[in-house]
Design a protein that fits this description.
Helix content is about 30%, strand content about 20%. It is elongated and about 100 Å long. The strands form two sheets. Strands 3, 4, 5, 6, 7 and 8 form a six-stranded antiparallel β-sheet that branches. It has a two-stranded antiparallel sheet with strand order 1-2. The chain is an alpha+beta fold and about 200 residues long. It contains two helices and eight strands, in the order αβββαβββββ. The chain has one domain.
Length: about 200
């Protein structure tokens, strides 16, 4: 007697189980890709901040020193003049608004965005689209301390990048603090970048 082989298909439960597994794997992959893309954007911002910091350090090296005689006239102290070719700009921002969930194409003409004198002073510019607003502040208007970051102090310098990567209105802020010796004109930046809401 011949046995008849029965062709059996998949049950509905088996098919649903496979669909659920594929859905979970797809969700994990999407999450991983989003995190990777956000990390790449943050890495780009950190690299740009490092370039700005190096430009500021070089500026302090080439900035002229002026001798200031006290009223008694017996001794002199040396003070640094910040960015003399720009009239002493103390805060520089570009672009003027924080890009939200999309890249911003800088307009580097007519003194706008990175064509401002204060950016030329530190020899920094971006011509490619960017997700971040970049800024540096000298002795004022620091972004990091109110968020729990380091305070550069009254003679300090702060480089910052601010972005809204996912467009929800919550800002991602990265700051790099530096202290400036007004006597020698040298500047020392921290080796750590403070980050608040990294992937926002």
């Amino acid at each position: 007697m011949k046995r008849r082989r029965q062709n059996r298909g998949f049950t509905l439960v088996e098919v649903m189980l496979v669909v659920v597994i594929i859905g979970v794997l797809a969700a994990l992959a999407m999450f991983g890709v989003r995190r990777y893309l956000a990390a790449a954007k943050v890495s780009e911002a950190k690299q740009s901040m490092g370039v700005i910091a190096r430009g500021i350090a070089m500026l302090t090296e080439r900035t002229a020193k002026s001798e200031v005689l006290p009223l008694g006239g017996e001794s002199a102290t040396s003070t640094s003049v910040w960015c003399p070719e720009c009239g002493g700009s103390m805060t520089c921002v570009a672009p003027q608004t924080v890009p939200a969930a999309k890249k911003y194409q800088p307009n580097n003409s007519g003194g706008q965005d990175f064509d401002q004198c204060c950016w030329r002073c530190v020899r920094f510019g971006i011509s490619d689209p960017t997700y971040y607003q970049y800024r540096y502040s000298v002795e004022q208007s620091y972004l990091g301390p109110p968020l729990g970051g380091p305070d550069p102090g009254p003679t300090g310098v702060e480089v910052a990048a601010v972005g809204d990567l996912d467009g929800d209105g919550t800002l991602s802020t990265l700051t790099l603090a530096g202290t400036r010796d007004t006597q020698s004109g040298t500047i020392r930046f921290s080796t750590h970048i403070f980050v608040d809401n990294e992937h926002e």
